[in-house]
Specification:
single chain, about 140 residues, alpha+beta, Alpha-Beta Plaits, about 40% helix, globular
Length: about 140
């Protein structure tokens, strides 16, 4: 079984879509290994998105991800990374396939409801960024 990392972003919590997203996660065959509500600090956001530092959207991304609480989760199933990315849809909701979370619940390329790891190496890094080993049951 493979693990991946997910964030239900501030816009999704603000719109009260967290329950819909969690239900979709389970309907897609994922086991929610661990889940917590978290307020991302500026330092955490800058560290988590460090690969984007220096890009024009970095400041806006950090401000957005610190604008309200999020849900962070570790998800598990076969082919978890690729399957979660398919369920999320394209980063820009306008380009996402019908039926994907971002197409249905995303508002913009930034306010797109959910985050998911791009590959297994990113998943391993992102999981340990927000969770201790003891939290990963």
């Amino acid at each position: 079984m493979e693990k991946t990392f997910a964030i239900v972003k501030p816009d999704a919590l603000e719109a009260r879509n967290a329950g819909k997203i969690l239900a979709r996660i389970e309907a897609e065959g994922f086991r929610i290994v661990t889940l917590k509500k978290h307020s991302i600090t500026k330092a955490e956001a800058e560290g988590f998105y460090a690969e984007h530092a220096g890009k024009g959207f970095f400041g806006s991304l950090v401000a957005y991800m610190t604008s309200g609480p999020v849900l962070v989760a570790v998800l598990e199933r076969e082919n978890a990374v690729a399957h979660w990315r398919a369920v999320m849809g394209a980063t820009n909701p306008a380009n996402a396939d019908p039926g994907t979370i971002r197409r249905e619940l995303g508002q913009s390329i930034e306010r797109n409801a959910v985050h998911g790891s791009a590959n297994p190496a990113d998943a391993a890094r992102e999981v340990t960024f927000f969770f201790s080993q003891a939290e990963i049951l």
